[in-house]
Amino acid sequence: MSGFRLPQGGRIDRTRPLAFRYGGRSYAGFAGDTLASALIANGVSVVGRSFKYHRPRGIFAAGPEEPNAIVQLGARPNLKATQVALVDGLEAGPVNCWPGAGFDVGAAAGLLKRFLPAGFYYKTFMWPGWRWWEPMIRRAAGLGRVDPEAAMPDGQRRSLHCDVLVVGGGPAGIAAALAAGAEGARVVLVEQDPQLGGALLAADGAVIDAMPADTWLAAAIATLEARPDTRVLRATVAFGVYDHGLVAAVERERIVWKIRARHTVLATGAIERPIAFENDDLPGVMLAGAARTYLLRWAAAAGRRLLLFANNDDAYRTALAWTSRGLPVAAVVDPRRSPDGPLAEELRAAGVPITAGAVVERALGRRGVTGAVIRHATGGRTKAACDVLAVSGGRDPAVNLFVQGGGTLAWDAAVAAFVPAAGGQGMPAGAAAGAFALGRALADGHAAGAAAANVAAGTVPYAEDDVATPLQPTWYSGRDQSRCWVDRASDVTVADVVLAARESYVSVEHYKRYTTSGMSPDQGKSSAVVALALLGAATGRQPADVGTTRFRAPWDPVPLAALIGQDRGPQLRPVLHLPTHDRHAALGAMIEEYGGWMRPAAYPQGAESLDAAVFREAAAVRAGVGLFDASPLGKIEVRGPDAARFLDRMYVQRLSTLKPGRLRYAVAATEHGIVFDDGVVARLAEDRFLVGTTSGGAGRVFDAFEEWLQCEWVDLAVFVTPVTHQWGVVNVAGPEARALIAAAGTDIDLASAAFPHMTFREGTVAGIPARVSRVSFTGELSYEIAVPARRTAALWDALAAAGPMVPFGVEALMTLRIEKGYIHVGADTDGTTYPADCGFADAVARRNDDFVGRRSMRRPDALRGGRLQLVGLLPEAADATLHAGAHVVAAGGGSDGHVSSACRSPAMGRTIALAMVRDGRARMGEAVTVDDLGKTVAARIVAPVFFDPEGTRLR
Amino acid sequence: MLLIDCPWCGPRDEAEFRCGGEGHIARPDPDTADDATWAAYLFDRDNVKGLGFERWHHRHGCGRWFNVARDTVTHEIRAIYAMTDPKPTGGA
Ligand SMILES: [Zn+2]
Predict the structure, then answer these.
(1) Does the structural domain B1-28+44-92 have CATH classification 3.40.50.720?
(2) Given a cut of 60, is residue B91 above it in pLDDT?
(3) Which residue has the higher pLDDT, A120 or B13?
(4) Which of A425, A855, A863 to substitute to test the interface with B, most B CBs within 10 Å?
């Protein structure tokens, strides 16, 4: 092939030349070019190498169906050159060859071709295992390079709502959009190309409404763009159809649109398919419509001398366009016996010979096509010279989106293609519905648009259609099947199809996976129907009986960056910050995420290790007083005449007996009886409670409350309000806690007699209105001071200034609560833990009325022996290390449970752990072996309260 | 991606909702239900092909629960009705 640019014509801007590089060489193109059209215009015939055999490949198509020109564009792999708009300074290259497309060491694989049939990978690489072979095969094959250092391009997700969505901006789609929006309906028209027009962009002499098609097109676009309620999205590929009218589209590979339409018109056009013959993958063999499009739209001739091999009239337009530009046409080879009609007449009048009843058996040439062997009806063969061999086996409606939307297909013998039959969310129109001729497509699109918007029909755009000789189905015309390509992108030949059929891969889905046909970036857009027709022929079936593979989204590859949109970096999952965040940062806190909150893990001093800091902080709380921001603890207000009755049903502990002003610890279970959450509940008034939850459980507890109230106990008069973020909470813990609060100033009597453990008082602390609760997760004298969230920092500052104190982080709090054996829901419990397993058997037994999960706690699974129960573990060696997750080894091997929490305890001067151990409560004092990350630790089972079991320090 | 017509907010994208599974599952009397009855209540679901009844929650909207009669094959929503309403019959 020796492509070149025509001196005039085309929809390119010759006043704006663009320089670009491909495979390391410099070329020039024009604004309006695609990378593919510019390469053709520059005479670049070999643009890449094939996937499996590394055969030289040239540009084959002009749209998203391109199987050969798969390119790397900077950091972006696997783009189709036909979809890359040319820009100045563009730098691209082939993905699949080394050192370059012209000379390729991997081409040696082509010499081994007969050893690489379909299923080759499955059959050959069984031993010693695929993983052993894979790196070598990947290196040899490969499809593009991902640069892990490259910055991810910006992406966005946006939403659109409309009455009528029209997918496809060709003649049918434009007619549909014109009709649909005529009376003010909200219309969205999406077109994958940067320009509207579709087939009209490469139509020679077409006339619509008695004017040149270009004039009609310009007027139509002006009409659409003048409508306030019509929106046109160019360079936007609709790639998925989902339920209830949702269509996903990607604009300029950057913005993913979620378009929710009342009605969708699918004017997605049709895709030309080839006929398989020998060496039909040579550069210079291309689809007839593509050769015409390059010539007319981009003034880029794919070669000097054309040979056309086609079984249908429409492809004749390529030869007509060629000869009308003064370029030689060697012949039109047509398997039909007597092609006639206006187009054939025109060709003959132009002096182009039509060789009827003949096929192209073989393309000649090594690195590009130089001619063809024509087999005549008589069986005789002749040769013809050419440097571009255009082929057309007919057209397949682009039905992918239609089928995604639930539509079914039928085989239409008249066009030898699958066409939309019934059902589906989208209304197919124009070529997508099998109406290939321009006049029919316009009328079809117009009707679909009017119907979708439910408006009066109006004037139908008119174009006269030529009478056509019917197409003659032709799939394959070579002799040596192993030299006739079906799927160029995946290097699948007719021989592979026949082999798959012989090996009983008769289902089209199995065939596809066995041969990898249709699994490349082009997704078999131009090859799928040829393949299934050949599979049918090899198994004695009609295409209709073979059927298609399942069509799934995406219709065309979508960049992950566009799908991800803004959901990355800090926006991936927004985190919450404590109201006192700045204070912790200033104190040098090590801040980590806990259940969506950024919280201080510890406050290492200077070169202090995290471990040492945790140890120091925990010890300081027991010796003096510590400050901790406990704001993330969930807070839910429950109020109403039935509030007490409701909470009795939601918690294991009875809450209706709680007196106003008092606090009670409570455990919640799921209806399956499993520990769900825990917290401290305050009764603010007869009809009003403040329910405390775990920091991570605030949302799900609120959800559970609402679900039970709305779905089951609809008779209860209760309001539930989440108030976690309304309150900031500072926990003051340690023997000096009372003194510190007093020094900060308060009007609340802090004496134990006036303000005992598990009660709360309201008043002021440091002049700030506060609700102060005497509640402890550390085992020390402890106050939780809740103030309006915005005043938390002021409270913290006042307390920090009131006397010596130590700020402590989440890890020290964990150490302190492990010393006391207080469970941490989600650490010591999991999805199999009943309250009775972790120390609440008595609480459950005390209840004689119903609550959520109570009945499930009497199911055989809850009552059986051998359950994991909460115990303490003391390693023999005081300084042994233990980690949560370490297994208690059963006598006969296997696991007898696991360590659920562990720490180095300052109060005990040794390592301690909580563990869930099989029948643990009956095994106090027993010596066990723990497997901690492969290390054996000897330990003893003890009660799960290590420090101050009498609780004297709390009072 | 369904379009669900919340009785309080109007049609909204499925992403705003949470499906609460099969609807109309009666909670047996916990004091009299035997183990099999209780287990059926907890675990047994119809998982129908065709018309199914579910409860949905407008989690990122008004927060209300309601019932949905949905064809699990075509995803057509046949009816949306209150939690306390009975299963629609006949033409639903
Ligand atoms: Zn709502």
Answers:
(1) no
(2) no
(3) B13
(4) A855
